[in-house]
Amino acid sequence: MNIYALIAAFGGGALGALLGSIPAFILTGVLAIVGGILGLAGIAEPTIGNITFGSFLGPHIAFAGGVAAAAFAGNKRKTLGNANDVLTPLYSINDYTVVLVGGLFGVIGFLCHYVYGTVLNFKTDLPAISVFTVLMISRLVFGKTGPVGKYTGTGKRDWLPDTKTLVNHIVLGLTVGIVVSGIAISMVNSGVSPKVMSMYPIVCFGISATSLIFLQTGFGVPVTHHITLPAAAATVMTGNIFIGVCVAIVCAIAWLIAGKVINSHCDTYIDPPATVIFISMFIINGIFV
């Protein structure tokens, strides 16, 4: 374990709280595009592991730290109006304890990543499973609704999306899957080496994450990184556009279900995209690696 990276993770989690979860994640996306493109160009660069997905802006550290800090601010300190708020920079609430909690959960995210990757050698997306774990811990510590929320309405809880929403997300998965998988096959056919193509899913992830700048500024854009990353990875591994498109559609639907199961009727936020990514990458790596 790199002790300096562990120490830095406290700062990364605190930074995620100060900037806000989604703003920090958008920065992750920007650097993922840059680093991924350099990788596709065959340029060895150290930022992907150390900055983009490391202790500086790694989602399991900065994003997760910011989400946990918001849960603490909303439910414990009462300095944030909504504990599920992942858009507001917590610097604005002027509460240093919230920043410190973000730093603490950044360290927890770093340790989760180390345990899952180095100790247990899980074959999945390590930042994603670490995000899920950190946010589940955050809910159990700062929330009162339990792992799958607490339904207080009348009648039976609806675990599945309505038909119109389901169809719209099938179309979303289909269209995103076509462009991600089609470009991957095109690049391979043009002579890009398989080794270099391993960076392609990172670029796709980065584009999706960066697109959330429009969500941050108030526009209803779709969240797509849970689609682009697994679809790109499956296409690169198999060289088959149809597999990539099918993965994209399944992940789009899975996001809806994950949101219903772990992120509705609850008082803290658990990230459905991270949940879908780590589960889908478990399956994809298990089948195709």
Structural write-up:
- The protein has 289 residues and is mainly α.
- The chain has one domain (3-288).
- The chain has twelve helices and no strands.
- Helix 2 runs antiparallel to helix 4, helix 2 packs antiparallel against helix 9 (200-216) and helix 7 packs antiparallel against helix 11.
- The longest helix is centred in the middle third of the chain and has 27 residues, at 163-189.
- The model has no long low-confidence stretch (mean pLDDT 94).
Name the beta content range: under 5%
**Radius of gyration based on Cα positions:** 18 Å
Helix content: over 70%
SS elements, strand count: 0
Stretches with pLDDT under 50, minimum 5 residues: none
Q: What is the H/E string?
A: HHHHHHHHHHHH
What is the domain tally?
1
**Ends distance:** 26 Å
Total number of helical segments? Answer: 12
Briefly say what this structure is.
This protein is mainly α and 289 residues long. The protein is built from twelve helices and no strands.
How are the elements arranged and paired?
Layout: H1 3-19, H2 21-40, H3 47-52, H4 59-77, H5 96-119, H6 126-142, H7 163-189, H8 194-197, H9 200-216, H10 225-238, H11 241-262, H12 272-288
Helix pairs in contact: 1-2, 1-4, 1-5, 2-4, 2-9, 4-5, 4-6, 5-6, 6-12, 7-10, 7-11, 9-10, 10-11, 10-12, 11-12
Based on the model shown, name its key terms.
mainly alpha, 0% strand
